[in-house]
Amino acid sequence: MRRQPRAARIAALAGAALVAALQLCAPAPAQAAAASFDLVVSAAQHPGDAQVMVVQQGDEVTLKVTTELPVEVHVHGYEIEEAAAPGKPASVHFRAHATGRFPVEIHLKGGHRVIGYLEVHPR
Q1: How far is residue 102's CA from residue 98's CA, in Å, rounded to a whole number?
Q2: CB 45 within 8 A of CB 67
Q3: Out of 40, 51, 69, 108, which could bridge 116 as a Cys pair, Cβ 3.0 to 4.6 Å?
């Protein structure tokens, strides 16, 4: 078996040490967080009342929706729907995997209305 020249062995060890040092110094990946938002639906709401909810990609999101009207809560971009009614709030839980700005709507008799926007920023 042939031995590597001393300079080659030193270069290989230095390279391995550099890789190990860079891995130790690299920032740890950001941990996913849990984010919870309370949304209240009333007949008196106006379109300008829409809440903006900001999270990071990978976060666990919970939307708690209370309402005085029977509605379906719909999170666009995630295609999640959940029923809510007076005295029976909806709790919509999901991981924010897609980035962007997504309307959160309620579907009710006679149409739909935006009650908030979910903004998911890249991690």
Answers
A1: 9
A2: no
A3: 51
**Region class of 110: left (phi > 0), else alpha (psi between -120 and 50), else beta:** left
Interval 97-109: pLDDT, tens: 999 999 999 998 8
Residue 1 confidence (pLDDT): 53
- At 46, list the tokens: 């106006």
Does an H or E element contain 110, and which?
none
CB 49: neighbour CB atoms within 10 A? 13
| Neighbour count for residue 102 (Cβ, 10 Å) | 18
Which residues are paired to 121 by β-bridges?
56
How long a stretch of residues is the chain? 123
Is CATH 3.90.79.10 what the domain over 34-121 is classified as, yes or no? Answer: no
Single pTM value for the model? 0.72
- 46-82 pLDDT, tens digit each: 667 789 999 999 999 999 999 998 999 999 999 999 9
Q: By the 8 A CB rule, do 85 and 18 touch?
A: no
Q: Please give the Cα distance from 89 to 70 (Å, whole number).
A: 10
